[in-house]
Amino acid sequence: MSTTEQPMTPGFEVDPAAFRHLADAQVNVELDTGDMILNMGPQHPATHGTLRLVVRLDGERVIAADPVIGYMHRGYEKLTEFRTYPQVTTLINRIDWLSSFANEVPFVHAAEQLMEIEAPPRAQYIRTALTELSRIATFLLFLGEMGLQVGALTPAFYGFRDREHVLNLIEAATGGRFHPNFNRIGGLKDDLPWGWIAETRNTMKIVLDACDVFEDLVVGNEIFQARTRSIGIIPGELGASYGVSGSNLRASGVDWDLRRDGAPYLAYPDLDFQVFTHPDGDSFSRYWVRLQETRESARMVLQLLDGMPAGPIMAKVPRIIKVPEGEAWVETENPLGQMGYYVVSKGATGPFRVKIRSASFSNVSILPWMLRGVYVPDVVTILASLYFILGDIDR
Amino acid sequence: MNALAVEIPWGVLLAIKAVVILAVVPLGALVLGYTFLLKMMSHMQSRLGPMDPGGFHGWFQLIGDGIKFLQKEDIVPDEADRRVFALAPTVVVISTFLIFVVIPAGPRLQVANLDVGVFYALAVSSLSVIGVLMAGWASANKFALIGALRAAAQLIAYELPLLLAVVGVVIQAGTMSLQGIVSAQQDGAIFGWSGIGNPFILTQFVGFLLFLIAAQAELTQTPFDMPVAESELVAGYMVEYTGFRFLFFFIGEFGTATAFAALAATLFLGGWSIPGVHGTAADLLGPLVLVLKLMAVAFLMFWVRFTYPRLREDQLQALAWKVLIPIALVNVIITAIIKVAI
Amino acid sequence: MLLNQFLILAAILFGIGMYGVLVRRNGVLVLMSVELMLNAVNLNLIAFSARLQETSGQVFSLFVITIAAAEVGVGLAIILLLYRNFRSPDLDEVHQMKG
Amino acid sequence: MVAQNVAFGILALAMVLAAIGVVRTQNVVHAALYLVVVLAGAAAQYILLAAEFVAWVQVLIYIGAVVILFLFGIMLTRAPMGDLEGLNNRQGLPAVVATLALIGTLTALLVDAFSDQEIVLDAPTPTADIATQVFKVYVVPFEAVSILLLAALVGAIVLARRD
Amino acid sequence: MADLATLTSRITDALGDAVLDAGEARGTLVVRVRPDAWRSTAETARRTLGFDYLSFIAGIDWMPAPVVGLVEGDTSTPAQPSDMTFGVAGSAGRFQVFAHVQSTTQHAGVTFRTDVDEADPRVESWVSVYPGADWHERECWEMYGFVFEGHPSLRHLYLPSEFEGHPLRKDFPLLAREVKPWPGLTDVEPMPGGDDEAGEEGAA
Amino acid sequence: MAKLPGLIGGLGITFKTMLKGAVTVQYPHEKEAPPTRARGVIALSEENCTSCMLCSRSCPDWCIYIEGHKEQRPPKREGGRPRSVNILDRFDIDYALCMYCGICVEVCPFDALFWSPEFEYSEPNIASLLHNKERLGAWFATVPAPEPLEVGAESGKKK
After folding, report:
1. D79 located within any domain
2. Is chain A in touch with chain D: ≥3 Cβ pairs within 8 A?
3. Would you place residue E74 in the very low, low, confident or very high pLDDT band (cuts 50, 70, 90)?
4. In angstroms, rounded to a whole number, what is the distance separating the alpha carbons of residues E156 and A331?
């Protein structure tokens, strides 16, 4: 038996600072309980990858969150300095592995700018079509996956099912399902195989149908709306200053799409497409914007197929590629947001310095701000709605 | 109360009953797990599910899984409270077994025809909460603890609408005995027409919906599966369980689903009864009829489970207290008024 | 069955409950001991009801159960409040009534 | 009657041991679980005494709600998971003496007063009888208990709110 | 897109004497500013010029990589020129920090660049201006060893906290390329009496 | 169509899908044919290889191991100089390292390397993923003929 003067047991000890903080985050009154640190990840189903989230909880409410990244860091910026230009494209395929083709475009574009060559129009059209296809593939996965993260298992399978058609197209054209490595400096590796255009038209119908399914099954679902509306709001201005880009920023009402507003690239100037924004900035609007963009991408692919010019797919390029000295910054609107390469060349066969500006890195850097004061289940919703790829964060 | 016309000694009968109860839970878990979890869900997701084990449509898959679980190493976390940890799955499963004691499968096919049958079933079903809390606490795992707390809060909250949904049926039947409720439906009449008896789903449709919703919550199934939400809590209170202990939880989950489906079938669809069939014929057909009705109810429950996302903890509490309970109370009052008036 | 076997069991349970109330420092445990005593009372009520073939005892035991539930609800709320103010569920530390 | 007496003996032993567990264990959660055993034992005793409805009320309310509340309270206040010292105060010995004295006195009294009384049961009490009693004879206490419950509800919420 | 000349004059006017040099990198404006005006540059860019979007902050090491373990005729590893040259806006020394900011409304962007002293690599932090600079500066700190003054917590971002060295500096060797022999070593065996008998080796 | 409540509409979708049947393929029993271009495995035509090392050097992973030696061959024409020929002793591709980028296939000046869409060569042991030249040569039989190109492509352009 111990004395009454004994201090309380260690399990009851609470950091007073955490409680001051808690007072700010508190929205409604509830039972007072001690706070606890929860480690979500690096192996956790919600982080779809090896993101670790150290969350300090009071009951079910997050009072602070710290994302720990780097479990997949592969050091691509260093590796590119030891590779030749054609070899670099195989590496950067693996940054955002869901839309690998779109990763290749800005790098190849940067090299082309430095070498002052331009890919022929047919190559530009095919590149654009494949970029949009990879955007569709990425978003279809998101549309299903987001359902999974808020508890609906079935949409995830629909997402995978319909994405498969798109991946088949990419594979038929490039030979690689996930890592096409199809871009060459000055053009493309190969032309499209026979029958590809007709097949793509059919698939775009499937994609548009799939969007309708998601509209009914997920967006229209009252429970889904209850789970995502006004959860994880990013104010547009704050999002921009964090470098949040792409659909995440457009869902916060910022009307900014590099396909339309950036330096003209690929065949986008020839296309007629709409940029969707949503004023709310919450998880629901991010889902909604991506759903609309998937539809729009399918329409863009159809436009590209209609206007596909004939001709060569490769510009005249020396056999051994040496890029003249110079610097180039090329940014593109990738499925996950702004993807850019700052390429510094010193005239060798490989780049001197490549700064890879990947979208997810900045998109995720806003997490500590967003997660303050939300419930644990909403952590998952927010993570899913931001839609990041670990390779794109860690590079 | 013997099952067949022949006289069976008391002890043998007890043994038969015990064996039936012991068999029906794993069997129910197996059938529901296979039909709905493996096959229906797969087809809803444009796939076939397991096809190889056993040759025909993978019927052996779950049995094989069970055998696999039995072979697995029994892992207990270092920090765990070993005794409580070991006991928890048993508590959950026992609560499932106890429910089946009162569910009738025929006029004489019942283990015990309790005067307070419905009440008993709902009372013992609440025992599983203890098992869940034990599991979550003893695992010495934060995910498990959060899951268990969520589960307990949710199960307590939804016990009320569950009970209140049944009250309407009890008022209409005038008895809490499940046999009494079944015969009230079998022999009842709708506006004087007794062609299909009077299944209470017609008069107590609100009650039926409430019962299904609350049962869904009691089973911690989507859209009320926050306690086991795999995308955030991994598997909630089950996260540290492996091998046969996990198997217990699995049997508990699907066994309880069977039990609730059977309860709903009995309370709202007339249980084993077919209008006009009595006596030994009903004893022979009863189990089959009950299983068919049970599967229909289970189909509804799993259909919802595989379609919807899950509600957040505070939302599902709000749903229980602010929507379901008031509706249930109104339903009870209206039923009582009509009962008294007629 | 003798009436006394139930009554003596109830007496023992009541005694154990009282011991708990006297000895325990943790508020939750004190409440549990009180529950033991209430159960002993219930057992008495039911036993007499069975002996007298009278249902009043059962009715009162129902009331006792209800009141016990209410008591636990309020009791736990108080303990949570104490815990919040004193950072301990220990009743012996609560010798001052300041919040 | 023999079977019932055997059942009583087993249950009584389990209940007493579990009750001692409740007051002696050094682990708060274990105490709550021991309490479950006592309560379940009591429910079984009620069934022996033909009070079926009360038995299931006991299971539903006590085990299904009260103990859950206890466990909830324990887990919310994050009682340390392992065993801990200092759950008991220093009045152990006097308390034992007082307890034994109480039990002894009561037992002596009971033996003296009721040793010839026997319980004879034919059928379980019909629930309808209890209902009639509650709603006819004891309707005022019933309403009073309802109001008490409401008051307790309000009180608990007021106490536990943080504002 | 505003045209480059207008943009240049707008920026140089707003920044005044902080600008050391300006250049063009294939359509993108690069402005080199004084190190002590690094944070004020960000403030001007965000508040006055309306560059509300932070694209990235990164470091660069202009020193050529020392050629270690590379073999004559290795075409798989590009050999860089061995003399130190600087980018379009020049540099005072080996290290520079560069950052790209953009405007979501004017659809324009600019790369700012400033020099970092090799002996005492200190840079002003941008976190107070662009909160998104947090992670970028942490990355830059661990990759180059630049200390961002005013950054709330310069912790490791990618690498384990016990990691030593700054991997993106050019003198940090890429071990993967050095421990594995270059495939060209396992070359064709010389002909008896051939002219290239020396210097060839056998199996790897 | 009138807007149904989302909860009921969702149920309709899953129910319809359930009736539609599966889209999956029961893999070991039935197989989907990958497209002709699929980069499944690299096949080696040994007689075309001159062990020039180009593929090995251009590999981003350095996962191609080549050894060879030179041999004297009698001159083709009577009285000519004896030719020296490169003989391939070893040609291994380590598929545990390979990134399937296809650079080696492209740089090969003598058409010795080809893509085959075969993919079923997983191994329980990582070391067994090192395919030697016999194994790589065996894949050669599975190399498909080049497929026709889409309308508008410049004709006559092959690999």
Report:
1. yes
2. yes
3. low
4. 27
